[in-house]
Structure formats: structure tokens, C-alpha cells
């Protein structure tokens, strides 16, 4: 029998426009991985219901994430690109995994505690079992590699726990899923304000979206927090300056970054010039993606086709796993 390639699974919630954090933490890896592995990339619409009960904008957000996936280079012929709610097997596996997840460990999850604090009137059970659903997404395809940003580390640890618990309680069905980033460490793209990270729904003035117009990009970058510059050669960089260098490293030429590093180290740096350069390099990076997204978004028929094709591939893989799961649990009479 032909050996199966390592399996990759990941997803993004359709709760707003994608930003540089989503791109560099997740999508950039997806695009590379689709050439090497068997890949499943999903739009986590069910997860979004835990925090966004108003679904009026859901369809347009799902279409946008899909268009952004394609505009960033995902290829529906290479990877399965699908919507979570189209793969009903996810719900079945989630149900079984819920019997392997304990209230105490779910209540201790950082994202649950944060959300419970930010939406005290809607601490729903879906919020509590969010990591169980995420584990179901991943192990439904028996994936072993999960490209994500640093903020998802704890969810991945929980996915491993649930997969291992299943294997020990019943029969070994699942590999241990690992968080993945080309490079090595998982990354966190910081906000431009020197506090927090880029985010789809919070911190919008400090977040660069793939949909931002050129002038908006320039304005946001020029407002990034700086100071009057170092006064001692080779001094350590404050966090907010480190962040600007980090962003520059992602989109600017090496020689440009080196010039500003040298300027910093010999105390001649002019942050205004640095931000102007970064703004132009950001514009050059984001504008072509934004243009492609706008073209793709016009073609609803094409978007629907991609989703249907992806769901078919995903359901095929899910079907094989669910047969193993039901047999392992003993649900085959
Ligand atoms: P979500 O929608 O919050 O984020 C999608 C991806 O973008 C990464 N990311 C970042 N990376 C670096 N810096 C940032 N500032 C930044 N902000 C977001 C996230 O780490 C993530 O990789 N629970 C998931 C969605 C999900 C999922 C899954 C992920 C559902 N099922 C199965 C992987 C596998 C989430 O809320 O991602």
C-alpha cells in the first residue's frame, strides 16, 4: 500500500478580516505545506458562533476568508479548502471527545477564561468546549502537523491530550498533533501600539489587515509607537522598537533591515524614516493580495465551487477516520 504523506490541518475563524498575524502565523505556512503534504485548511464557522451569535455577517466573512486564502496562494487543487459546518463528521467526533474532556481542565484554558471575562452574559457551553471542537477538527483527518501562531499553543496541547486519551481508553487511532511553523518557534505578530498582538476583532488601529488600503496602511505604520532613539551604542531595544524591526524583517529587503540595525546601534536612527520605509514595504506587500481578494470576491460561483470541492475531500478523509473511531469505541453492532 502506498505510504500516506504526513497530514496537515489548520483553520481560521471567520470573525473579521485577516491580518498580518494570520498571514505570518498561519497562512504563509499553509501555502508552503500544500506542496509537501496532504493538507486540510478550514474556515472555522462553528467556532465563531461561540463568540459571535449574530450571524448576519457570517456569509460574507466566510467568503472573505476563502478569497483571502486563495489570494495568498492556497490552491484548491492541492489542498482541501472547506468550511467546518460542511463536514458533519466533525460534530460527531466532537461529541465523543466531550466524554474524554474534563470540566476542570476546560475551565483552566486561557482562552476560556479570557472570553468568560469579556462576554460574561454569554458563557456558553460551546465556549467551554471550544478546544474539544478544535481537537475534533484536527484529529478528524488524523493530522500530525498543525500550522498555527503562538496563541494556539495551549489548544494544541489539549488536542494532544484528547487524542492520547482516546488512544489509551480505546484503540490507537490518532497520531499526536504538533503545532508547526517553518523556521522553528511559533510566532506572534505584535500590534503596532507596542501592546498586545494583531487581532481580527480587537486592537484594530494597531493591526494591519490584508484588506487595508494603501493610505490606511501608511497611517497605521506612521502611528506606531517609537521614542527619541537610543543614546548609548548597542543598547537593548525596547519591546515596541523590537516589534517594528520584527515587522520590517518580514516585508523589507535584508539590506534595508541591516541599515536600520546599524543606525540603531550607532544611535543615528531616525524612526520617522524607518517607519516611512516600513510603510512603503508594507503597501507593496499587502496591495497585490488585496487586489486579488477583491477580484475573487466578485465570483461567488467560484467560491461556492471551491467550498464544495473541499468539503467533498474533507468528508472522504473524515469518513475513513470515523469508521475507525466508531469501531474503536465499540459503536459497531
Ligand atoms: P484564529 O482565527 O484566531 O487565528 C487563525 C490563525 O492565525 C494565527 N494568529 C496569529 N499568529 C501570529 N500572530 C498573531 N498576532 C496572530 N493572530 C492570529 C493563529 O495562531 C491561528 O493559527 N482556534 C483557532 C481556529 C481553529 C483551528 C482549528 C486552528 C479552529 N479549529 C484547528 C488549527 C486547527 C483560532 O481561533 O484561530
Question: Helix/strand/pairing class, anyone?
Answer: mainly alpha
How many distinct domains? 2
What sequence of helices (H) and strands (E) makes up the elements? EHEHHEHHHHHEHEHHHHH
What small molecules does this complex bind? tryptophanyl-5'AMP
Shape: globular
Give the second-level CATH assignment, the architecture of the largest domain.
3-Layer(aba) Sandwich
Mean pLDDT value: 96
Return the CATH class of the largest domain: Alpha Beta
Query: Which oligomerization state do the chains in this entry correspond to?
Result: single chain
Gist?
The chain is mainly alpha-helical and 333 residues long.
What does this structure look like?
It is a single chain. The chain has 333 residues and is mainly alpha-helical. It folds into two domains: 7-180 and 299-329, Rossmann fold (3-Layer(aba) Sandwich); 204-293, Tyrosyl-Transfer RNA Synthetase (Orthogonal Bundle). It has 14 helices and five strands. It is globular. The protein starts with 6 loop residues before the first strand and ends with a helix. The mean pLDDT is 96. Tryptophanyl-5'AMP (TYM) is lined by residues 9-13, 21-22, 25-26, 44, 47, 134, 137-138, 146, 148-149, 151-152, 155, 187-189, 197-198. Residues 9-13, 21-22, 25-26, 44, 47, 134, 137-138, 146, 148-149, 151-152, 155, 187-189, 197-198 line the site of tryptophanyl-5'AMP.
